[in-house]
Amino acid sequence: MANFSKSTVPQFSVEVYQNEYLPEGGREVNAIVTVTSTGGGTTGRRSLTGAPAAALPGQGPNAAVVIMVDCSGSMDYPPTKMRNARDATSAAIDTLRDGVAFAVVAGTHVAKEVYPGNGALAVADSATRAEAKNALRKLSAGGGTAIGTWLGLTDRLLASADVSIRHGILLTDGRNEHETPEDLRAALEACAGRFTCDARGVGTDWVVKEVTGIASAMLGTSDIVADPAGLAADFTEMMENAMGKEVADVALRLWTPVGVEIKFVKQVAPTVEELTERRTQANTRAGDYPTGSWGDESRDYHVCVQVPEAGVGQEMLAARVSLILPAADGTSQVLSQGLVRAVWTDDMVASTSINPQVAHYTGQAELAQVIQQGLEARKSGDFDGATAKLGRAVQLAADSGNADTAKLLSKVVDVVDAATGTVRLKAKVADADEMTLETRSTKTVRVKK
Question: Which helix or strand (DSSP H or E) is residue 365 part of?
Fold first, then answer.
């Protein structure tokens, strides 16, 4: 659990966007909750010489990072893949802030600590960075893939550090073939909430759902690096983002009065992430949803609740949303708060108006869903179903201004008319293009204010 003084906690704000008006007997209340954190100020921060900056004055090193590098036999095909992985890990090490605890793990069908190698973590400075990069030269490909063992070792290493921010970076190029899906699921359940983890698949021989599932369970990011030459830039960016995190274990607490039912809670920006089933009970009327670590950033959440029926003129507090920072002593600090209201009216214009933020993110969540459904249909040979789903995706991407997703879709379908979602499936699609669309399908764009 994090234990910060108020001076070291970034400032959080909560804004609620909703149409609070319901028709007589109306029950469903939707709200977009925008959470913004400011004042961390270290994302990508470097000294004037270009070297990684030390911790902020009075802040002290408050982070530990473990980099997990796939060293299975397939990393030698082609040989440039292993070389690029070494170079990328080296670039990530160069990005570490002075004072941050770190280690490097080589992953095959077993997990081995490459550096520092004593079952503990090294502390980043010019000497340990040089030692770590020298140790990377010993990395070679050979063996199988058992990602659960990599996560287990990483968890043990990170647990040895007295820090608040614990983060993993995981690279794989293949399928998790040397342990069962149940083994991986058990490892993720054991590690969830103990550290966050970004996951990357390099090349095109890995399974998208495995990599995205790891990142989702560990509240991190996932992506494809189809060309191994792009690994160094990607690893540098990941590490810079990790170095920008200032506070961990922040929870979104949802309090609801008697009679109110929670239908769902999901993150909708920068990616769609279902949180409903991750609720832990805080007290009789409130539950906490994990959000992971924060730096200087803003995220959007969609909260949907069902309220009791009521007559015109009545109003109620449908939910109270709070940002909670737990402390080691069992207490918690409320960082910010927002209210979701319900007001019953006989004004048809007011009660039937859809809030722009709610409408936008409902479309973005549908966009992610129909892309995944369309690609599944395509793989199974249901080409009519795939055409319909991916056509709807093209339409939604165009409507919402999600240009990045529209571009990815155009690699899989020929767009006849984006406005109506009229498309034709391409006869041949490169594996990298299909996997990129699937991996990035949950990425959203912010609503235009």
Answer: helix 356-380
Q: Which two tokens stand for residue 244?
A: 């920008």
- Using DSSP, state whether 351 is helix, strand or coil: helix
Instruction: Give the mean model confidence (pLDDT) for residues 134-157.
Output: 97
User: Vertex 290, ends 284 and 293: CA angle to 5°?
Assistant: 140
CA distances from 98 to 90, 195, 232 (A): 15, 20, 20
Summarised one tens digit per residue, pLDDT across range 309-322 is 999 999 999 999 99
The model's pTM is 0.92
Spatial separation of the C-alpha atoms in residues 274 and 122, rounded to whole Å: 35
Give the list of residues 6+ apart from residue 182 with CB closer than 8 angstroms, or none.
none
Express each pLDDT in 54-113 by its tens digit: 443 333 468 999 999 999 999 999 989 999 999 999 999 999 999 999 999 999 999 999
d(CA 124, CA 118): 15
DSSP string, 141-192: --S---HHHHHHHHHHHHHTS--SEEEEEEEE-S--TTS-HHHHHHHHHHHT
| Among the listed residues 114, 209, 111, the one whose alpha carbon sits nearest the alpha carbon of residue 155 | 111
Q: What's the pLDDT tens digit per position in 393-402?
A: 999 999 999 9
Q: Is residue 402 helix, strand or coil?
A: coil
> How many Å apart are CA 263 and CA 340, to the nearest integer?
14
Task: Report the alpha-carbon distance of residue 93 to residue 220 in Å, rounded.
Answer: 19
Helices 79-95, 231-243: inter-axial angle, 10-degree rounding: 30
Q: Burial of 36 by CB count in 10 Å (0-12 exposed, 13-18 middle, 19+ buried)?
A: middle
Indicate the residue type of 406.
Answer: A
Describe the crossing of helices 208-217 and 181-191 by its angle, rounded to 10 degrees.
Answer: 20
